Amino acid sequence: MLPIDAVKSIDELTCRVQPSDRAAPLLLGERIKKRIHDNLGPTITCSIGFAANRQLAKMACKAGKKTGGEKYGDGNMVWHPANMPGPLLAMKLSDVPGIGHSMEMRLLRVGINSIEGLLAAQPKFLRKVWNNVSGERLWYALQGYDVQTPPSGRSMYGHGRVLPPESRSVKDAKAASRLLLVKAARRMRRDQWNAGGVSLYLAMRGKSWGANTWLPAVHDDHAILAALERLWADAPPRAWIIQVHVTLTDLTPAAERQLDILLNDEGQRKKAERVTDAIDSLNRRYGKTLVHIGEWIPPGEFAGGKISYTRIPNAEDFW
């Protein structure tokens, strides 16, 4: 048994190696590869990295993709704690997950131009370089400590779409935004959140436009689509819109809605929520968007979901 520690994206996960397998990690890697080959066939391969923590294992995995004459993407690399930091010192700063171009430039400005210099720095100093605890946490991870990043809370639900050339009018962009917002709200309800705001972003020729508006902690389609209509009322009236993006923000647990004494909308909310719940129930039953509020015009006649590398989509995302 190889317990999954965390699913990091659609094509990446981390596992905790059991004590009985730690003596022969390369053999464990080959067993995993054989299991994938026997069950999925030769087309899908994997690269595996073993190390003291997630950060180092990810780096070992990347390093193993290009070594030993193996084809790219099919490595099996072990960075044993007893051999560290040797393999790490052969890497570049840009090879460290969490160090992008801008962060690398920031490190260069403070005199850190190598992994060796990064390891020699003080963790509190790296906290200042990063302007948050991530720098200090990275230092401990590179030193081999079993650092566990705390889970991040959900902050938004959104969908965006580059519109096909024939669907870049304001009318078509508005129809696309309605569809995308309903799909985002469907995901939000499934995870049992309310939204306190909605935003609309439009990318046009040579410029962009965006706005947001307040919501009274809701999750029903009536209130959310009404807020979108308010945003479109202020949007550029004549524009060639290339891309549209909608986002539900300021999330709070749906079971903990705080009533607004001045708004006094609880009766209206419950009625709208019952209608929305009934629509969701019918669509789930038939496995497609059978019922919806208002127009449902897919941009380019396609309303399905997209494969994301940051989350594994649900079947409902493709309706």
Radius of gyration: 24 Å
Average pLDDT, to the nearest integer? 88
What is the N-to-C succession of helices and strands?
A: EEHEHEHHHHHEHEEHEEH
Low-confidence blocks of residues: none
Secondary structural class: alpha+beta
**Total strand segments:** 9
- Report how far the terminal alpha carbons are from each other: 36 Å
Largest beta sheet, briefly? 5 strands, antiparallel
How much helix, percentage-wise, in residues?
A: 25-40%
Number of helices: 10
General shape: globular
Q: Which range does the strand content fall in? A: 15-25%
Structure write-up:
With 319 residues, the chain is an alpha+beta fold. Helix content is 37%, strand content 18%. The protein contains 10 helices and 9 strands. Strands 5, 6, 7, 8 and 9 form a 5-stranded antiparallel β-sheet that branches. The chain has a two-stranded antiparallel sheet with strand order 1-2. A hairpin with a 2-residue loop joins strand 1 and strand 2. Helix 6 packs across helix 7 and helix 8 runs antiparallel to helix 9. The protein is globular. The model has no long low-confidence stretch (mean pLDDT 88).
